Amino acid sequence: MCYAVFIGTQEEQLIDQFFPDQTVLYFDKVNPEAKPFLKSKFKNPFIYYVGSDTSCSCGLNFQSEYFHDPEWQDQKQSPQAFLNFLKDETQKSEVEYYCCWEGDWEEEPEQIIVLNINDIELDKNYFSLNERQFITFKTSAIS
After folding, report:
1. Structural domain boundaries, residue 47
2. Contacts of 74 by beta carbon, 8 Å cutoff, 6+ apart
3. Could you tell me if 23 and 14 are in contact, meaning their C-beta atoms sit under 8 angstroms apart?
């Protein structure tokens, strides 16, 4: 089973597709079956599925403690690209994030947190993927 990561933004994002050995991060339309369940969780108007180098959201998973481990070097690209996107996008507005197992989008979040994205680094304290976690990413400048 795969993780499914969804984001909610104030602005439309470019819809893309997965290309093996080329794609690091992409946004896709939400499965129509999932859309009504996700809309109830997000306040931002544009909701997207987030894919990675693995074609699913699983490639966004990373543990900071393995940052310097040679066996994990190939798994850093997608999480870093996602962090870069979040840091850029939160300069304009908050970004909402929900992670669940694929098909469990109707489940309510078990953990709801707010994180200042400027405090997050892949090598120190990456948030990783946690099932049924809802995060609002912001910068300290956004009220």
Report:
1. 3-138
2. none
3. no
